[in-house]
Design goal:
single chain; about 260 residues; mainly alpha; 12 helices; about 50% helix
Length: about 260
C-alpha cells in the first residue's frame, strides 16, 4: 500500500467511526451527559481513569460514579461535605475501589481550588520548548498526589516517564482538545494543540497499526506511542490523532 493509499484508507475509516452514532457505546458518552465545561472535563477525566475492561461495564460504572456525585460533578467536587462523600466508598471498578474514588474527588477539589483546574494543570506550560504531553502527564501525576494518599491509589494515574503508554489519559486529551464538526470530541481546551496530541494505544489499535505497517515496536509502551504518532503525523501533521478513530474502529468492529 502506497503512502497515498494508506492515507486515503485511514481517512475513510476515521470518517466512518468519528460519528455521533457511536457515542452511546463508548465511554465518551459519559461526559456527553453534561454541558458545563467543568462538568464535562471532570466527568471525562474520571471516566477515562476507569476505562479499562469491557466498555459496557466502564460506561455503567462511570455513570454510577456520576450518580454518586448527584449528576453534578463540578458542584459535588467543590461543595460536597465529608458526610456526603462517604457514599463514594461503595464504588468499585475492577481494582479501583471506594478509597481511590474518594481520593480522586478530593484531589480534584484541590486542583480546582488552588491550581486553576485540570486544563491549567495539564496545559499551563505549553508551548514551552521543553514541554510536551509526556512531561505534562508526569507533572499531572505529581500534582495530583501532593496530598496524603494511600500508596495503592497512585497506580491509577500513569507516568509516561516510567514508560507507560498512558492510553486512558491520551484518550482523555483527545476528548478535551480535538476540534472538528463531528460532535464526538469536545474541543474545550485551547492550551494544547491538536498537533501535540499523541495517539491512544491499546491492544486493538496496536494490532491494527502493526498490520498496516504504522508501528514496528512490539510493546505497547510510551516509545510505541511516540513511534505510532510520528508515523501518523506524516499523514496529517495538524491532527494525527484523528486516526485513532480508524485504528480503534477497525480493531473493534472489523475482521482484520
Amino acid at each position: 500500500m502506497t503512502e497515498n493509499d494508506l492515507k486515503s484508507f485511514l481517512d475513510f475509516k476515521s470518517d466512518l467511526y468519528n460519528r455521533q452514532e457511536f457515542i452511546p457505546e463508548d465511554p465518551v458518552s459519559v461526559p456527553h451527559l453534561f454541558h458545563r465545561k467543568e462538568d464535562i472535563e471532570i466527568a471525562g477525566f474520571l471516566t477515562a481513569v476507569i476505562s479499562w475492561g469491557q466498555r459496557k461495564t466502564i460506561i455503567a460504572n462511570a455513570r454510577k460514579w456520576m450518580s454518586l456525585m448527584d449528576d453534578a460533578p463540578f458542584d459535588y467536587v467543590m461543595n460536597s461535605s465529608s458526610r456526603d462523600q462517604k457514599d463514594l466508598l461503595s464504588f468499585v471498578h475492577r481494582t479501583f475501589n471506594g478509597e481511590d474514588c474518594l481520593y480522586f474527588v478530593q484531589s480534584l477539589r484541590h486542583l480546582y481550588q488552588h491550581c486553576g483546574g485540570l486544563e491549567n494543570v495539564m496545559g499551563s506550560r505549553f508551548p514551552e520548548a521543553d514541554e510536551n504531553v509526556r512531561t505534562m502527564l508526569s507533572r499531572l501525576k505529581q500534582v495530583f498526589f501532593e496530598s496524603p494518599h494511600l500508596p495503592r491509589t497512585v497506580k491509577h494515574l500513569p507516568d509516561p516517564m516510567k514508560g507507560s503508554a498512558a492510553k486512558r489519559m491520551n484518550m482523555f486529551l483527545r476528548w478535551m482538545v480535538r476540534k472538528d464538526d463531528r460532535g464526538v470530541d469536545f474541543g474545550l481546551w485551547n492550551r494544547i494543540g491538536m498537533d501535540q496530541l499523541l495517539c491512544p494505544l491499546d491492544v486493538h489499535s496496536g494490532y491494527v497499526a502493526r498490520n498496516l505497517g504504522l508501528l514496528s515496536r512490539k510493546q505497547n509502551d510510551w516509545k510505541a506511542v511516540e513511534e505510532l504518532t510520528a508515523r501518523l503525523r506524516r499523514l496529517d501533521p495538524a491532527d494525527p490523532v484523528r486516526y485513532d478513530y480508524a485504528l480503534f474502529g477497525i480493531g473493534m468492529y472489523e475482521s482484520f
